[in-house]
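Sample pair:
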Amino acid sequence: MLIKMPHLRIGDLIAKVPIIQGGMGVGISLSNLAAAVANEGGIGVISSLGLGVLHPQKGLSYKEANAAALKEEIRAARRKTNGIIGVNIMVAVSDFDDLIKASFEEKADIVILGAGLPLRLPSTMTLDYLQNAPTKIGIIVSSGRAAKIILNHWAEHFQRVPDLVILEGPKAGGHLGFKEGQIFDDKFSLEELLPQVKQEVQKVEEKYSKKIPLITAGGIFSGEHMARIMQLGADGVQMGTRFVATEECDANTAFKELFVNCEKNDIVIIKSPVGMPGRAVNNQFLKDVTKGIKKPFVCPWKCLKTCDYRDTPYCIALALQNARDGKMTDGFAFAGANAYLVKKITTVKELFADLIQEYSDFYSHLKLPSKRSLAH
C-alpha cells in the first residue's frame, strides 16, 4: 500500500506534494521546469536571477530586461500548468525592488526571498499593497536567530508576517548562509537547526494565530530523507539539485550530464566573488580561479550589491550563464552536497514517483528517525 505524503498548505494554497523545487540561476529553473513540477503537485519555482542577460530585449537596459523577462517566464509557466508557481528572488541583487514588483504584478503564487535579510519594504510597494496582495511570501533562513530577526521585524514594521519559512542548511548548493568553519560542523546540521527555527516560528504562529509552514532544504535527496526530516517537524522540503538532471530542466544537456558524471570528491566549497562560500562541482574553470588566473570580462550590469567587478577574478553571472548553455570551460555549476548521487537524466514525473515511493517505503519498513546527518 502506497503511503501518501501530506499536503503542504500555505494559506489558501495547497500543494498536493510537499516539495518545493529550488530556484536555480542563472536560467536553470525557468518556466519549463517550474511548470513540470507544478503539474506533479509540487511548487515550481522560477529563478529571477540574470534573466535580462539570457533574454536581452531591444531598447531595454539589462535591469529593465530582467523584469520584462521574468514576467514572460511567469506567463509561460501559466500557459503550461494550473499548479502553484513561485519566484525566487535574491535580496542581494541590485534590482530586487523591480523583480518583486514584476512578480506581484504577474500574480505569482508565492515569492521566495533569499540571499540576505529582507528587512525593508521594496520602494515599488506600499505597506497596504504588501498586506493585501494575493501573492504569498516565503523567506529563506539559515538559523533560528535569522528567523527571529525577520519574523519580528515584519510583524513590527509591516504588520504582517511571512507565509512560509525555508530553513536552508549547509549541504545546499550555491551560496551558503554559513561561515566556512560551520559548513561541516554537525552543530549546524538541519537536524540541529530545525528545532531552533521551529521554536521561533511557533512563537509567531501563536501570537498571530497563523500557520506558517516550515520547509527544510539543503542535501535532501530521497523520499526517505524527506520522511526523516518531516518526522522531526518539517512541513515539507525544498530540492534543487534533484531537479537539474531532468529532461524538463531549462539547462543545456551538458550541464545536466555534469551532475550525472560527477563523483563525491568533485563537490567542493568555493569562495564566490560576492564574498560568500558556495558549493559547486569542481572543473577546470574553478581550478584556474584557485590558481589565481583571472577570467577577463566586461560587467554587463552590477547585478549583486556586494560584488566589486573591478577586483573580482570573474563574473559569476556570466560564468553561471556559460555553464547553463553547456560552455563548461567558461563557467561552472553550483550543486548540493549529494549531487554525486545523481545517476541519470530522468523526467520530473518519474522523479516524483520515485520520491513518493521512497517516502512510502520508509514508513512501510521502518524504524524511528535518527539524529544522524541526512547525507549517506
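The radius of gyration is 19 Å.
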